[in-house]
């Protein structure tokens, strides 16, 4: 990596008679973004003897969507929270390596409160939902194996005989579906969801992979990634450019020029790990504009928004179970899934912090993001009073992130939408001129949405770039034109209805 300095005079600084030095940095590889995928890419290059790279990250800390903060004295996760899929899942191996403190989540440990604020027994309905959804997964897996067309989550649930009618049934469905996928069954793929689930929980990481663990470590979930980053970057490492925002990526057949808000980086190769939401929102400029086949792949994918709203109360007034489901009559699933952070085995109880957390997704997330904190708090207290009566205290703190509005993320994790073909996905992640490569959770066909998707794609893409540097770039696939199934369908044998 070489640095050269060009003295530039910015208008503001000229007035105060100062000069700023903008550097031009020459490097082999520029890693754009320092989330889990970027860290994994940097580690892979390092372990394979390539240290001529620069990492550019807009925030003042690595980790990306692995973010935590304090509510009272408790460290809570604003982003990823669960190791999803155990066994040899690389995230599970990191959990073990750094002895991360985790808790077992019991999704059946539930209290049900109906629309009148009355506790009811919803176990039978919840079990029914689980059975019906298993059928959806079975149908979807069979279709995947025989290369049949996809169907939406809603179609699948209806085919399996699940019809949510009452508010509590809708909340059961919301908990089982949206709370996992981040989006509604109407817009979600069933085939890819089944493959994604199977990959992490049964097929890929060995016989012990079925299960998940919730991080409750006061060091935060990101600790494991920050520790791995220390294997790459030493203190004051000039290759790590924090607080530096990429503005434009200019690419050609020969090189990539990255213009940041501080300097210019000229690289032989770049690895973009920006979220698919950042790519969709045009937060970074691409010169020349990406080709249409690639843009279509990017625009067609979904980055769901999943918002955890943490409320800290002077005392616990809710039930001991891990989760409480409220049948909100206002809107399907709105403010309906509450998690008790005081539950046995979660955070220490008996102290000042009594945290009750509610999750909203997608349109509900956009709505809360557009409201002030006070407005959200007022609305939530209205719901809690319907659930528990008027005699409940006001919260001492409320914290929630605005993932969708944040130009560095634009959402939480990806969800495969109905209508997105395998080939669209290939196009979304295909390199440009074998100079700009794409990694990050959404680019993982098997583990999209999960941390392992981010980690594995970062390593894989770094290995490809290393191959480009040392030998010749591997062949990448893309589809300049996509054809739909109809043409093929018209030549297959049809049954005649008599
Ligand atoms: C609320 C929430 C809950 C989740 N729950 C789980 C879970 O329980 N289990 C699980 O496995 N996964 C979960 N995930 C998903 C998981 O966090 C992600 O898959 C993973 O962190 C994505 O990593 P990444 O490196 O692909 O992307 P990112 O983390 O988005 O990394 C990209 C980086 O690029 C930086 N960047 C963006 N724009 C610019 C720019 N212009 N210039 C410079 N830098 C820029 C960003 O700051 C970021 O650091 C959750 C995510 C969220 C938000």
TrEMBL record:
Q: Could you tell me which InterPro entries the record lists for this protein?
A: Amino_oxidase (IPR002937), FAD/NAD-bd_sf (IPR036188), Flavin_monoamine_oxidase (IPR050281)
Q: Which residues cross the membrane?
A: none
| Pfam families on file | Amino_oxidase
Q: Which UniProt keywords apply?
A: Signal
Domain (Amine oxidase): residue spans on this chain: 36-465
Q: Which Gene3D superfamilies match?
A: 3.90.660.10, FAD/NAD(P)-binding domain
List, in alphabetical order, the Gene Ontology terms for molecular function in this entry: oxidoreductase activity
Q: Which Gene Ontology terms describe the biological processes this protein takes part in?
A: polyamine catabolic process
Q: Tell me the first and last residues of the signal peptide.
A: 1-22
- The name of this protein is Amine oxidase domain-containing protein
Organism lineage? Eukaryota, Fungi, Fungi incertae sedis, Mucoromycota, Mucoromycotina
């Amino acid at each position: 990596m070489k640095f050269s300095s060009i003295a530039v005079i910015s208008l503001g600084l000229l007035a105060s008679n100062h000069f700023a030095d903008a550097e031009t940095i020459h490097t082999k590889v520029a890693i754009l973004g320092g989330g889990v995928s970027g860290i994994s890419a940097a580690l892979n290059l390092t372990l394979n003897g390539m240290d001529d790279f620069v990492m550019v990250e807009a925030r003042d800390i690595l980790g990306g969507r692995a973010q935590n903060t304090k509510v009272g004295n408790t460290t809570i996760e604003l982003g990823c929270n669960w190791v999803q899929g155990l066994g040899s899942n690389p995230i599970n191996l990191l959990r073990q390596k750094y002895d991360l403190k985790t808790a077992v989540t019991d999704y059946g440990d539930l209290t049900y409160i109906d629309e009148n604020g009355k506790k009811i027994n919803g176990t039978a309905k919840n079990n029914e939902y689980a059975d019906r959804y298993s059928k959806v997964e079975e149908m979807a897996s069979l279709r995947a194996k025989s290369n049949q067309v996809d169907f939406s989550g809603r179609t699948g649930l209806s085919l399996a005989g699940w019809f949510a009618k009452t508010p509590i049934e809708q909340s059961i469905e919301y908990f089982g579906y949206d709370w996992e996928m981040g989006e509604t069954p109407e817009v979600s793929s069933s085939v890819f969801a089944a493959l994604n689930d199977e990959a992490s929980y049964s097929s890929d990481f060995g016989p012990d992979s079925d299960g998940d663990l919730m991080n409750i470590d006061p060091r935060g979930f990101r600790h494991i990634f920050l520790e791995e980053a220390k294997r790459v970057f030493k203190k004051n490492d000039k290759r790590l450019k924090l607080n530096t925002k990429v503005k434009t990526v200019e690419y050609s057949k020969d090189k990539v020029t990255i213009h940041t808000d501080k300097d210019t980086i000229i690289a032989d190769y770049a690895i973009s790990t920006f979220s698919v939401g950042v790519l969709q929102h045009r937060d970074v400029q691409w010169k020349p504009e990406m080709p249409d086949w690639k843009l279509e792949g990017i625009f067609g994918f979904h980055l769901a928004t999943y918002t955890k709203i943490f409320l800290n109360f002077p005392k616990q007034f809710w039930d001991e179970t891990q989760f409480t489901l409220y049948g909100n009559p206002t809107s399907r699933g709105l403010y309906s899934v509450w998690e008790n952070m005081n539950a046995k085995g979660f955070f220490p109880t008996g102290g000042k912090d009594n945290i009750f957390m509610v999750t909203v997704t997608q349109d509900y997330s956009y709505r809360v993001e557009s409201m002030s904190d006070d407005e959200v708090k007022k609305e939530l207290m209205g719901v809690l009073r319907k659930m528990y009566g008027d005699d409940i205290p006001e919260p001492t703190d409320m914290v929630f992130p605005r993932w969708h509005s944040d130009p560095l993320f634009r959402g939480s994790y990806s969800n495969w939408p109905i209508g997105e073909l395998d080939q669209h996905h290939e196009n979304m992640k295909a390199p440009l001129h074998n100079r700009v490569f794409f990694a990050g959770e959404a680019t993982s066909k098997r583990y999209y949405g999960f941390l392992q998707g981010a980690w594995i794609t970062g390593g894989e893409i770094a290995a490809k770039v290393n191959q480009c540097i040392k030998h010749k770039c591997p062949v990448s696939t893309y589809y300049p034109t996509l054809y739909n199934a109809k043409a093929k369908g018209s030549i297959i044998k049809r049954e005649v209805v008599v």
